[in-house]
Amino acid sequence: MGDTIKIITVMQQKGGVGKTTIAVHLATQIKELFPKLKVALADADPQKSATVWLNNGAADSGVSVHQVASDVEGKRLMDELSSIDADLVVVDLPPAIAAISMRAVLYADLILVPVGASALDIEAARHAVDLCKEAIGLDPSKKFLLIPNRVQMNTAAGRELRDVLDKWGPVSKATLCLRVAYADAVMHGIGINSFAPGSPAYQEIGQLAEEVIQMLDLRL
Ligand SMILES: Nc1ncnc2c1ncn2[C@@H]1O[C@H](COP(=O)(O)OP(=O)(O)O)[C@@H](O)[C@H]1O
Ligand SMILES: [Mg+2]
């Protein structure tokens, strides 16, 4: 990918782990914290959840939404992403490790892998982690970050998730807990930054946004 646009890809082959949730809240939060950045969301999921979410919004998030990979395999993905007028594009992927995920990983500067706290969730993330490591083996300038999501600190699984993930690779400092605000913001078509400013969810996403921006070495 060119030097000008930074690409963040949210990837995990399991459905329901929080890809769309993280893509939308992160993009809108980055826009709020770094208003000078042109932030875009590229929706590569044929279900178009992210597009519907932000297009239903009452408030203008300032994040432009683009549908990409209309051919499902994403053969034009590079052209589609390059033609977006943005400094930073967050790509939301469908639940699959298929051609589209491979391509999105190929063009990503940073790959985010959401992981839930159940044993099945952790096991499911292994394939995504393997793909990230393979991609970084070929291009060491790429980075990936595991994101503990839907964590319940009052459960042993929730408390131990970070220890398990630390053995696999870099884990975000931010832990995203199981919070209704994350889900409720969808119904209002807005990100957590507008839905619940100052809330614990807002703090978590804010911390993740700061971390991601630092990892990308963006000139702000
Ligand atoms: N941290 C969280 N707290 C509460 N609900 C969450 C959280 N993350 C995701 N969800 C909910 O879980 C469901 C699946 O999330 P979603 O982002 O659509 O997953 P994916 O895009 O990986 O399929 C949605 O209903 C979403 O609102
Ligand atoms: Mg999704």
Structure overview:
By secondary structure, the chain is an alpha/beta fold. The chain has one domain: Rossmann fold (3-Layer(aba) Sandwich), CATH 3.40.50. It is built from nine helices and six strands. The protein has a six-stranded parallel β-sheet with strand order 3-2-4-1-5-6, sandwiched between helices. The relative contact order is 0.20. The site of adenosine-5'-diphosphate has 17 residues, from helix 1 and helix 7.
Protein traits:
six-stranded parallel beta sheet, 220 residues, alpha/beta, Rossmann fold, binds magnesium ion, binds adenosine-5'-diphosphate, 6 strands, 9 helices, single chain
Number of strands: 6
Which regions contain 5 or more consecutive residues with pLDDT less than 50?
A: none
What overall form do the CA principal axes indicate?
A: globular
- How would a crystallographer describe the biggest sheet? 6 strands, parallel
What is the percent of helical residues? 40-55%
What is the level 1 CATH name? Alpha Beta
Order of strands in the sheet with the most strands? 3-2-4-1-5-6
Write the H/E string, N to C.
EHEHEHEHEHEHHHH
Oligomer: single chain
The CA-CA distance between the termini, in Å, is 19 Å
Gross CATH architecture: 3-Layer(aba) Sandwich
Report the bound ligands by name, code or SMILES: adenosine-5'-diphosphate, magnesium ion
Q: Tell me the radius of gyration.
A: 16 Å
Separate helix tally: 9
Binned strand content: 5-15%
Tally of discrete structural domains: 1
